[in-house]
Design goal:
It is a single chain. The chain is an alpha/beta fold. The chain folds into 4 domains: about 120 residues, Alpha Horseshoe (Serine Threonine Protein Phosphatase 5, Tetratricopeptide repeat), CATH 1.25.40.10; about 30 residues, no CATH class; about 170 residues, Rossmann fold (3-Layer(aba) Sandwich); about 70 residues, Helicase, Ruva Protein, domain 3 (Orthogonal Bundle), CATH 1.10.8.60. It contains 21 helices and 6 strands. The protein has a 6-stranded mixed sheet with strand order 1-3-4-5-2-6. α3 runs antiparallel to α4.
Length: about 450
């Protein structure tokens, strides 16, 4: 193989813009595990013809093999935006997203794979993104079949089983609180309400406290509420079910309430389980604004499930997130429901340093002055900080493609990117300020006033 590579190199010295020849050389280098050399060849092709799909796919594949998952994701995203990768070509993209703990995005891409390649299975992906539910286990017992992998093929489609239960995507996150930058106060609240009762059941039982309950997280978008919920499940080695509006609402009368019941039933069957409702204001809107609406029945069902009147919620830990807590029905904040309402602010200076460090991990960088970058990104959300790094990465990808070598990200690049990307939290705080000042009789929004340094 090495002899063939040398011959191709020699041929390219006479015809340097011969793209098919250079593609063949790069493919041989990949087979020979000469990944740095292969990446250089693909980058050279892109210098000659930036839109070459084979070179882009090859470069993404090399980044994946080199475990440069963030760089690979950027290339895969561009290919997907151009509709240039389909079916099993998307599998490495899914694995990169899993490695970067972007499970929601991984699930969406994996759904496309399963739609385009019916029956497709991958042990590594399935072990992370799919988990057999109690409904599956009952079917296995009835059939006497030890291998029930076929029974979970429809998990992504919400397939109904004979016992009336539905499948909602369930994970077993390996995230921990240490993986979440900052948020010490929020972590302490969650620990006291959710984690410690499970770790010290006898102590809490002595005080008449059950395991379970609910916490409502609110704050500007992009500040890590979903990430924190997953980390909570990881801290207690619990299963995690992420529920969105599309999982509950149905056009047919009564089906939305049924879906909501099945979500709670699945969580109870798999306790300890963290049940996370994202954008809960869409499901639990104020009933005074919904007179005559069928959504009132959904909200009443939600409240009944949280109360656990017919079924015990012991071991079911309910977290919910909203950007608009003022739109959530006040009944959800009664004791035994979301009796803890916690403000998730943009990361402080220390938190921003941690978030930047985490998102820069695995990327080619010079020695970064994280404190300097954190200083110019005050009030930036975690999502804003990721956007800053993505912009800086794009700068360096352009430089790398132009120069034919990997150019490292610098502090200067990140500060330049921060000036280009303005924080997205300002609009939220503008709205929240009005509620905190003029609709805060119970003191619910005092944390917002404290954060904004407004005297009560």
């Amino acid at each position: 193989m090495n002899e063939g590579i040398e011959q191709l190199k020699e041929a390219l010295s006479f015809s340097p813009e011969n793209i098919p020849l250079r593609l063949h050389l790069a493919e041989l280098m990949v087979k020979g595990f000469m990944l740095d050399d292969a990446a250089a060849q693909y980058q050279e092709i892109l210098n000659i013809n930036y839109g070459n799909d084979k070179a882009r796919k090859g470069l993404a594949n090399v980044f994946y093999k080199q475990k440069k998952f963030s760089a690979a994701i950027l290339v895969y995203e561009a290919l997907m935006a151009d509709n240039k990768i389909v079916g099993e070509e998307l599998v490495p993209f899914v694995k990169c997203l899993i490695k970067e703990n972007s499970h929601n995005e991984a699930i969406e891409i994996y759904k496309k794979v399963l739609q385009q390649v019916p029956g497709f299975k991958d042990e590594e992906i399935d072990s992370t993104l799919r988990m057999p539910t109690m409904g599956n286990k009952r079917r296995m017992d009835e059939d006497g079949d030890d291998d029930f992998e076929d029974d979970i093929d429809d998990m992504f489609g919400g397939n109904e089983f004979e016992d009336g239960g539905s499948d909602f995507l369930m994970e077993k996150p390996d995230l921990k609180f240490e993986d979440v930058g900052g948020m010490k106060k929020v972590k302490n609240e969650i620990s006291l309400k959710i984690i410690q009762p499970l770790k010290n059941p006898d102590l809490y039982k002595a005080f008449g406290k059950k395991t379970g309950g609910g916490i409502l997280l609110y704050g500007p978008p992009g500040c890590g509420k979903t990430y924190l919920a997953k980390a909570t499940a990881g801290e207690i080695d619990a299963k995690f079910i992420n529920i969105g509006l599309h999982d509950i609402l149905d056009m047919w009368m009564g089906n939305s309430e049924k879906n909501l019941h099945e979500v709670f039933a699945q969580a109870r069957n798999n306790a300890p389980c963290v049940l996370f409702f994202d954008e809960v204001d869409a499901i639990g809107a104020s009933r005074s604004d919904l007179k005559g609406s069928s959504m009132r029945h959904v909200i009443n069902q939600f409240l009944a499930e949280m109360d656990g009147v017919e079924h015990s919620n012991d071991g079911v830990l309910i977290l919910a997130a909203t950007n608009a807590p003022w739109s959530v029905d006040s009944a959800f904040r009664r004791p035994g429901r979301f009796d803890r309402v916690v403000f998730v602010a943009p990361p402080d200076t220390e938190g921003r340093v941690e978030v930047l460090k985490r998102h820069l991990k695995g990327k080619p960088t010079e020695e970064i002055d994280l404190a300097a970058v954190a200083k110019v990104t005050e009030e930036y959300s975690g999502a804003d900080l990721k956007a800053v790094i993505d912009i800086a990465t794009e700068y360096k990808l352009e430089d790398s493609l132009a120069k034919g070598s990997i150019e490292k990200i610098t502090t200067k690049d990140l500060i330049k990117a921060a000036k280009q990307h303005k924080n997205t939290t300002a609009e939220w705080f503008s709205t929240a300020r009005n509620y905190a000042l003029y609709a805060n009789e119970t003191g619910l929004y005092n944390d917002i006033l404290d954060y904004m340094k407004i005297k009560k």
